[in-house]
Amino acid sequence: MKHYSIAATLILTIFFNIRCFSQPKPDDKGLKDYYKNYFPIGVAVTPGQLRDPAQRSLILKHFNSITAENAMKMGPIHPEEDRYNWRDADAIVEFAVANGLKVRGHNLCWHKQAPKWIFLDQAGNTVTKEVLLNRLKAHIYAVVGRYKGKIYAWDVVNEAISDNPKMLLRNSLWYKICGEDYIAKAFEYAHQADPNAVLFYNDYNTESPEKRERIFQLLKKLKDAGVPVHAVGLQGHWSIIDPSEASLNASITRFSALDIDVQVTELDMSVYTDGNIVEQASNTESRGFSADREYKQQMQYAKMFSILRANKASITGVTFWNLSDRHSWLDNFPVRGRKNFPLLFDDQLTPKKAYWGVVNF
Ligand code: GLA
Fold it and tell me: What is the pTM of this model?
């Protein structure tokens, strides 16, 4: 009897020790596996990353959706009226098809990274509304048409809402030339080019209550007019202090009420707290990935994903904006040359604490 109880104690002790001290096994599962009952997990990529063996295998292990970081934007893909540069976009789509990944197309109409020619005539004057809409249509037909059946969703219009809370729409060249019509037209052209594609309006600061309402207003107007807008993209350029769980939850709830899908389309989490302040001089924060920032980032990622999981009926995808801390647009924004650490993998491609915050639930 005594022997049995010693043996049992021994077995229990070993079991307890294995459970407590076993390290997470990074090789077992990827993000997409942890989230298989929730939503696809995507990442913005460059063709160079797909050619690099280490980054390619990290992408394949963790993600089941990809987006071109830049290659499908109007400027890069359509640099002159009669010239399309398909090479990079094709490489990304071919990679996705070969490996069974979904592709989100990004984006068709934006005030940034748009080629100059599209707004100008031969003499360098601004074109008429009719000419600009015809050019937009030709562009959308060509790009969406080329990848029809391979790209399941498109960010059709990006960031059309003004940064001025008193205005609805941004006073961009699109708006100056076409008025608000360019938005509905872009969605109609995209729908004509691929009736099966899920069409998104995509924007940032979507958790700010006042901007949330202006986006809601725009989407409602479009929906009421029968415009084929199917989903909203919350870019998700967040930070370790923002947004709150309540405001993320409120945005998802509010937009879903329009009977549209919601995705987080460009997720990263700055370790700095100066948000979108572009002035370098105004930035007085210390730099670097301190233990405190590491902890706060893990907590904030964990909180955001718990809200996303709780809303899985509305959320149809979450895409990270870049793969690892090796490369992020936040290394140059809002402060040029200031290294940021916004992603789940460090510059050695190793999962950070933030990663475990996202997958341990
Ligand atoms: C916006 C765009 C993205 C990307 C980021 C960061 O959010 O939608 O394509 O350019 O800015 O640069």
Answer: 0.92
